[in-house]
Amino acid sequence: MPLKLIYFPLPGRAENTRLMLSIGNIPFEEERISREDWPQYKTKTPFGQMPVLQLEDGTYLAQSFAIEKLVEKLAGLNVTDPIQEARIDEASYLFNEIMELVRPANHLPTLEERLATRKKLLEPLKLKLNTVEKFIAEKLASSDGPYLFGAKVTRADISLFTWTSIIISGFMEGFPEDILDGYPSILKLRHHVASHPGVKKFYEKEEDPYRKVCQSSFTEAALQKA
Amino acid sequence: MPLTLHYFPLPGKGEVSRLLLTVGGVDFVDKRHSDDWPEFKPKTPFGQMPVLEFENGELLAQSAAIELYAANIAGLIPKDPLAASRVVEAVNLFNEMADPIFQSMGIKDLEARIAKRKDLVATTLKSKFQTINNYVDNKTKNSPFLFGDKLTYADLALFNMMGMLSSGFFDGIPLFNELYADYPALKAHHAQVANVPSVKAFYEKETDDIRKYYRPQ
User: Fold this and answer.
1) The predicted structure's pLDDT at residue B123
2) Is residue A63 within 8 angstroms of chain B, CB to CB?
3) Which residues are bridge partners to B7 per DSSP?
4) B175, CA 20 to 30 Å: which among A25, A142, A219, B135?
5) Concatenated DSSP letters for chain A?
6) What distance in Å separates residue B81's CA from the closest CA in chain A?
7) Do A90 and B89 touch (CB under 8 A)?
8) pLDDT average, residue stretch A202-221
């Protein structure tokens, strides 16, 4: 059976995997489970969580970082040198801190609570983005290609793209859409990733408003404006 | 200069790397910073520890990246992509045991924090422990460790999590025997890892209270 990725319809913790599979031209199916249908699917997953990747032998692999590590290799986006691999991991986990920082607001039950919490998170988020901007600027300056680690896109570039997209997508009510305007290196890397043929191919098929910010036309306009 | 792991003295986010390098027989300096942290902080990539200092002086940050690198050079993660991902899957599952701690860390009032943690232990943590106990039970039906006869990164990640949570460091979270009373597979796994000669030897040299549950119980 082909690979099957099972998750909610939104980008969330599955988008890095979707993009890597698309970039690597790896055939895969998706099962996008709505919030209403999720409770009945929960018990079919190994640990009651998504995403899960159903492998060719029918078994399930859980935990987004584990799935990403596998798919990175399937898509030919991995490196063999342990130190280089560590540098890609370092960047990926740095960017993941953006998502960890905003987590406290995500599951609050009311809009008011989410808005109030996100208002308090805005300053820490900007400080984190400052660190990320500096890191990306340094990496791009010494890179011999459009991505952090040279001419080839890596899981780290894709992670930066996905997490920052989520922040400005409107999904996280209360975070201003122009929050990335003060970060030119972030915007530049976003645009390079959005322009990758494998990424463009994926978003051509996506229509939901939360993925509008993932279109290369959007990232280009953001770069021009900054 | 030698490979050096820089962290605070406590287990926290440095211990798994310490154990990976120790069990793997990799020569390294276990540098523990306390009063000199403010001086060292600006030298780190992101103002955080742990950082791993390579022989050429370059620093690697992010505990997960350091652990994966250490597991790699220590031979404690398989080379096969799917087998490696199964280990990473387990490590990430175990890391979720700490979620209730992080969820309660922001509560400034001690009594409120203790109350929140007691609630989490009875609900979220209980459900996590049950899931993980079942997982460990299944994985260790025919082998002492999670992925066969040899220790891997996943075993050390679980071992550290169990030791850290039950250490008494987190007010409101019970100590070892009470916390794991209903989870026989977890306790059996803990004993397996604690009795690995290089692990046992490591903790024989540690004298602090926070590591008391990193020894055979």
Assistant:
1) 92
2) yes
3) B32
4) B135
5) --EEEEE-SSSTTTHHHHHHHHHTT--EEEEE--TTTHHHHHTTSSSS-S-EEE-TTS-EEESHHHHHHHHHHHTT---SSHHHHHHHHHHHHHHHHHHHHHHHHHT-SSHHHHHHHHHHHHHHHHHHHHHHHHHHHHHHHH-SSSBTTBSS--HHHHHHHHHHHHHHSSSSTTS-TTGGGG-HHHHHHHHHHHTSHHHHHHHHT---GGGGGGSHHHHHHHHHH-
6) 6
7) no
8) 96
Instruction: With beta carbons less than 8 A apart as the criterion, state whether A149 and A88 touch.
Output: yes
Token digits for A156?
A: 């780290």
B103 has pLDDT over 80: no
pLDDT at B107: 86
Q: Does A79 lie at the interface with B, CB-CB under 8 angstroms?
A: no
Would an 8 Å CB–CB cutoff place B64 in contact with chain A?
yes
Looking at beta carbons, which residues of chain A come within 8 Å of B82?
A: 55, 61, 70
Q: Is the pLDDT of residue A226 over 80?
A: no
Residue B173 one-letter amino acid: I
Q: Which two tokens stand for residue A177?
A: 């859409």
Judge whether A93 is closer than 8 Å to chain B, CB to CB: yes
**pTM (2 decimals)?**
0.97
Contact A54, A1 (CB under 8 A): yes
Instruction: Identify the pLDDT of residue B179.
Output: 94
